[in-house]
Amino acid sequence: MARSSSAKSPSKAPQSAAVPASNRERPKEPQRYKASKDELLEFYREMLLIRRFEEKAGQLYGLGLIGGFCHLYIGQEAVAVGLQSALDSKTDSVITGYRDHGHMLAYGIDPKVIMAELTGREAGISRGKGGSMHMFSVEHKFYGGHGIVGAQVSLGAGLAFKHKYAGDGGVAMAYFGDGAANQGQVYESFNMAELWKLPIIFVIENNQYAMGTSVNRASAEDQLYRRGESFRIPGLQVDGMDVLAVRGAAEEAVEWVRSGKGPILLELKTYRYRGHSMSDPAKYRSRDEVQAVREKSDPIEAAKRELEKLGVSEDALKDIDKEIRAIVSEAADFAETSPEPDASELYTDVLVDEY
Length: 355
Fold this sequence. Notes:
Structural class: alpha/beta
Shape: globular
Number of helices: 11
Strand content: 5-15%
Radius of gyration: 24 Å
Number of strands: 5
Distance between the termini: 92 Å
Helix content: 40-55%
Mean pLDDT: 93
Low-confidence stretches: 1-11
């Protein structure tokens, strides 16, 4: 039967409206930092100090001179050095998790007292009672060293609240890893930080494997710099193996936070060469993968190439390495020969009454 010409034609499916562009202000896209030769030499020295210190710590652990857990920072040196070189150590606070030796060295803390703490000596920065994971220095505005995964993020928000409340102009930098990025307390902290426009830089050190599971298998959203978007916290993803890229991102982040715009989130794409801790054989990845990263992306070798372009000779770089090795060797000797805490120290710094 012929269809009547007056019959209504089926209505067209409504076209979806274009998604409006965000009208929220965002930080500028960071540019790679243009370092002078002297600045780049200092970045190189600091990264090399962290590398050689951690190598020595691994040796002492193998000899039984360091007990408990020991998480090394080898491969991630550009993150701490690039970020913390943009902070003001007189006003700005730093807090991190248990992979903390590198952050302390990057904030100018004496390698001797760090190594002495690793070996449990009275001269250690926490008087031998904190060990690898629990170091602290109010003097240096370094607030740990925390063994509970993600706990430092909430404490970092508290540090930022203190800066805002006191009006001291300081910012807080709170480091956590790709594994901790899935912790609920992290998002509670995000919410408070944005509501109160706290001066805090949240730093995700994405070293790809958390304890031993690839970020792609553990996180539904593996582009971790986006994790703050639902709280209106802008995020930037940064090459964490390039100290100049890291410093460039730090410049933008510090400017954003210090100007009163609230928190910012940085995801540093980095890589750890060793296992999660010294007791981790790292069988979840191949040796070829680790070697490929070392060959293509090592942050110290990259800085060395930049310095050579600026006219620094290979002999001069070897002299720096020799100097750093001597500093680390002296720190290890100090740690091995310093006395252990007196037994009475078991009863100090313990809360036993009302407060």
